[in-house]
Amino acid sequence: MCGAELKELPEGVQRVSAVLAELGHPHAPRMLDDAARTAQQAADALGIAVGQIAKSIIFRRRSDEAAVLVVTSGDRRVDEKKVAALVGPIGRADAEFVKNRTGFSIGGVSPVAHVQPPVTLIDRELFRFGEIWAAAGHPHGVFPLAPQDLEKLTGAPVVDVVQEAV
User: Fold this and answer.
1) What is the pLDDT of residue 37?
2) 43: Cβ–Cβ under 8 A, 6 or more apart, which residues?
3) Strands 119-123, 132-135: parallel, antiparallel or unpaired by DSSP?
């Protein structure tokens, strides 16, 4: 069975859909036929540039075990030193930590509707595009938005958190 054939949306996608509707976002999540666990897979499925994918990267803040969500452009790599300079020392987050803190599995982490609100940072590189796409709580789920919408939906600051483009 492919994602578009699902009759009932997965729980994570339902949660994202409800939050988007509550916040007045005009676009509901959409289910893709193929999984979009990576930015490249999502871009290929949507027929867009990989930079238009708003990928969600979760880190673990060492001081308090808080989840730190960095939403970055799919064609960029997060600079962990820049993130740590903004939020304090961080470490890698394993799949169990991500699932427990966000309610989502890796590959489907949405920027909204987390079970525990994360510390969130938005990469300024996303603002190169008029339209971006984010995960909607499932590897097959995505939704469109403008970078400014991401800022409004999350209340997160827009910062420089990526490695220099080579």
Assistant:
1) 83
2) 49, 50, 52, 53, 74
3) unpaired
CB 152 within 8 A of CB 72: no
User: How much of the chain, in percent, has pLDDT values that exceed 70?
Assistant: 95
Question: Whole-prediction pTM value?
Answer: 0.92
- pLDDT of 15-24, one tens digit each? 999 999 999 9
Amino acid residing at 6? L
Retrieve residue 5's tokens. 């054939």
- What six digits make up the tokens of 119? 């510390």
pLDDT-based confidence at residue 165 (cuts at 50, 70, 90): confident
Q: What dihedral angle (degrees, nearest 10) is formed by the CA atoms of 68, 69, 74, 76?
A: -30
Give the HSE-up count for residue 79: Cα atoms under 13 Å, Cβ half-sphere. Answer: 14
Cβ density class 42-72: b for 16+ within 10 Å, e for less: bbebbebebbbbbbbbbbbbeeeebbbbbbb
CB within 8 A of 102, min separation 6: which ones?
58, 67, 69, 109, 110, 114, 115, 116, 118
Q: Which two tokens stand for residue 103?
A: 């309610």
